[in-house]
Each structure stands twice: as C-alpha cells, then as structure tokens.
Amino acid sequence: MQNYYQFIIPRLNGESIKKDLGKYLTLVRKGIAGFIIFGGRLEEVRRHLKILQEESRLPLIIASDLERGVGQQLKGGTLFPPAMALAKASLKRGSGTTDGQVVISRDRRKLLRDSFTAVAEEARYAGINTILAPVLDINTNPDNPIISVRSFGEDRETVSFFGVEMIKALQDAGVAACGKHFPGHGDTETDSHISLPTVNKPLSALARNELRPFRAAVGAGVRMLMLGHLSVPAIDASGLPVSVSPKAVNYLRKTMGYEGILITDAMNMGGLSRYSEEEASLMALKAGVDIVLHPINPEKVVSFLKDRAIQFNAGRLDLFRQGLLIKSDDSKPLFNFNAVLSERLTRASITLTGRFKTERDITLIVINDGGRPAGRTFIRALKTRVPGIKTISLSPEKETARTALNKIDKTGSVITAIFSETRAWKGNTGSRLSEAISDCEKISDLFISFGNPYLLNKVSETPRMPVYWDSESAQKTAAEELLKHIRQK
Q1: Are residues 27 and 63 in the same domain?
Q2: Are 225 and 217 in contact (CB under 8 A)?
Q3: Helical H runs in 130-245?
Q4: Are residues 87 and 143 in the same domain?
C-alpha cells in the first residue's frame, strides 16, 4: 500500500519544538514529506531540525514563509522590508522601466541580491531548505486585503523582474524557492484565508498580465510553485479552486511547460471551506498536485486517503527531496551585517511626496487599526529631538476621529501616522478607518502610512510618506527622515 504521508507537509510550531519533538519524530518515521515552520527561536529550532533530518530516509522539506527573511518566523533571524519596499528602494535614482524591461543601477542591484542571499544563508543556518517566496502576484487592486506590500509592485515587468532576482539568489545559495500564488491573487478584494476569491478575467487578459511573472519564474527554473485558493473561471469554468483543479495543473504542465513541484496553499484556509480537509487533500492529489500543505490533522487526511487506496506518483517529489539541503550550515551568518542591509533598504524605500517643512509646534495623531499598541518606537525617536511634540492615539473601532480632533491646537502642524499592516485573516480595512483618515485630512499637514501604502490614496493633496512596514527599524528610520523636515525653534 502506498505511503500517503510522503505527500503531506504539516505545521511545526517552533515555540514548542522541544516539547513536541516526539510527535514530530513519529511523523518523520511514518514518512512525512516535511514541515512548514511557524515561530520559535533560531538556535533551538536549528538544533531540533537536525534531529528530525537524521531520522528521515529522504531529506525532509523544511519550509517556511520567509518573504521578509528568517526574522519573519524565528527570533534571532534578520527581518527585511516587504517586497514592495525592496522594489521601491531598488527603483530609485537612475532606475526604471525601459522598453518593458526593468533597469536598476549596479549598486542597487548588488544591495538587492545581497539581501536575498542573506535570507538564504540565514535559512540554511536554521536548517530551512525551502522558502515559500517570492510572491508573484501583481497588486493591481488597491483594496486587496492580503497581498498589498507583499507584492513587488503593480505591473507585470516589476513583479517579474524582482521575482526572478529573488528566485535566482535563493536557489544559487542552495535553497529552493516557491513562487506563489498561481495564477495571481493581486486583483482580488477577498482574503483567501477567509473565503474563496474569484478572478473574473478572460484567459487572454490573464496571459498578458497575471501569468507573466509565473512564466518568468518557470523560465528562471523555480523549483516549486504554490497554487492559490482562487476561483478562476478562465482556467476552470467549474468554479473549482485552482489548488484542487486538474485543469489548472494541466495548464501549468502542458501550456506553461512547468516540470517542478506543485504545492497547495495551506489547507486550513477559508478558501477551501466548502470541502472537508480530507476531501480537499484527495482532490488536490488527484488533480496532480505534488504536496498538500498545512492540513490541521495529517493523520485524518492519511486515513481518508488510505480508505480510497488511490495510487499517486511520487517520483517527481522524491527527486526534489534528494536535491535538498540536509545539514544546516555550521558557520554563523553575519547577522549584524544583514541588519544593516535591511536598514539601508528601508531607508532607500522611503520617499516624501509633496512639500513639508515646519518650525511650528507639532501634534502627532497615531491611527491604529491593529488592536495592539502602535507607534511607540516612532514617537520615542521623534521626542528625542522634538521633546514638545504632542501625541494623540486613535483607534477607529473604539472612537470617532472627530472626538480626538477636538483636542488639537489648530495653530501648530499636524502629522498623521497610520498603522495598518497586511496580515492573514484580517480582511479588508473597515469604513471606520477610512472615515478617520478623511477626518484627519482636514487638519493634517503630512500623512505617513506604516504598512498599507494604498490608504494614502484616500488623501488628495496632503504630502505623504509611505513606509510599507512598521518594524522598530522602520519606525526609527522614518523618524530620522521626518526630522530632516522639522526645524527646531
């Protein structure tokens, strides 16, 4: 009887890897394909991954969502800016698009490649051999709740160029790259973690735009592609999610000539809620997908597959695993150097649009839709140089902006900082946030967006500064850039 564990990659919680090692070892002995890692401390995860690899007949696929580097998942790794910030940083000063080709300066290209190589080296050190990146979605919809800054940009040339750069850098450094989310999640207003988005475009339009980065990735030799939980009638008129669709797999294999590994997006997502996890796993494997990612209960999935006793070809998957890194690197990455790389990219990505210069008293409004304290590092950094700055924190879901604005001295300058990050399961930004931004525009001299830059589209003529993410490093850098425009009395 076929071993169905070999087609499954379940979740590994890095925070509890030591406590749960026995459970993970049992899965390895049963033949599990590998794990997707969430959280944990780098050194501890590294030690225990070695134990798991030593127990496996074939190299385990140790995968993780590292779009922003190892620090996105593991404490101790470097956190890099999101994809859109990397592209913005690289396309400044002497760069741009010429005859449909992206051209960037030599020094910017080196900085970009160094950052991607740093991600791969830190992943190798941790024992991660498969990075679930780059995002190849073109963010053509500003109301997209889940792609946004995770995309390199809003046009096919930019996304194709930077996607290929990342793929080549990761794979040249010995780590498998996984392009996602085929055939393109950029023109949607629904988060597939919550429900199934539909992309209603003719195939000719998809071929001109959404599919171009994936074709470029195939041409660059990407070793894995992730199928999105997306309904795309032009590819499968039945409405089946692409991740479980034989027609989607056939399109990739026959029309696009892709011979690498196909993996589903996570099976616990709402985009597959019309099926049980077991049914969806069977559908994906029958469609020709190689790996089922992140089922909540892999044992139930295996039991379900055993009952059906359908044979699936594991040859392609075995070859892929044989070519993976088994041992983590012994030499430590240059974490301090990588942190400097990250800061340089963040600084290069920040641009103030419009004219803003002030000598007046300043009030800072912090709008936060994240449900947790925001902007502390930014405020602290400003106060070291502008000790008299007044701050007002505003949570749109708890109070109206008008209530807070009544407290402001209109004779000074007003800066509004919006903290609204893109994250899974969050959904679209609410109307209360839009109302708060609109109310603040009436009195604000400058808007800064930490996270979603498209919120600044709601501001007509006020100067703006997109920052793309809200890490401590990003907040400090944004404060330094802002202080250049504030004259002390």
Answers
A1: yes
A2: yes
A3: 156-172, 203-208, 212-219
A4: yes
The pLDDT, as a whole number, for residue 94 is: 45
**CA dist 7 → 51, 131, 261 (Å):** 21, 18, 11
Phi and psi torsions of 202, nearest 5° = -65, 155
Tell me which of 187, 191, 236, 265 is the catalytic residue.
265
Tens of pLDDT, residue by residue over 212-266, are: 999 999 999 999 999 999 999 999 999 999 999 999 999 999 999 999 999 999 9
- End of a domain among 281, 307, 339? 339
Say what the pLDDT of residue 401 is.
63
Q: Is 185 a catalytic residue?
A: no
Q: For residues 305 and 292, is the Cβ–Cβ distance under 8 A?
A: no
Domain of residue 432, residue span? 350-483
Question: Are 312 and 443 part of one and the same domain?
Answer: no
- Whether residue 99 is predicted with pLDDT greater than 60 in this model: the reply is no
Tell me which of 319, 339, 359 is where a domain ends. Answer: 339
User: Token pair of 105, please?
Assistant: 């300066």
Q: How many domains does the chain divide into?
A: 2
Do 310 and 454 fall into the same domain?
A: no
* Same-domain check for residues 441 and 309: no
Rounded alpha-carbon distances, angstroms, from residue 285 to 81, 278, 310, 436: 35, 11, 10, 47
Q: Is 193 a catalytic residue?
A: yes
User: Measured between alpha carbons, how far is residue 323 from residues 230, 309, 327 in Å?
Assistant: 30, 29, 12
Instruction: Note whether 334 and 447 are same-domain residues.
Output: no
Q: Which of 185, 193, 229, 294 is catalytic?
A: 193
CA-closest candidate to residue 364, choices 421, 263, 446? 446
Start-to-end CA distance of the chain, whole Å, equals 80
Mean pLDDT value across residues 145-156: 96
Provide DSSP, 364-382.
EEEEE-SSS---HHHHHHH
| DSSP string over 36-69 | EEES-BHHHHHHHHHHHHHH-SS--EEEE--TT-
The pTM is what?
0.95
**Is 462 a member of any domain?**
yes
333 plus 420 within the same structural domain: no
The two tokens of residue 101 are 């080709």
In terms of domains, do 331 and 367 share one?
no
The single residue listed with the structure tokens 């109206």 is 400
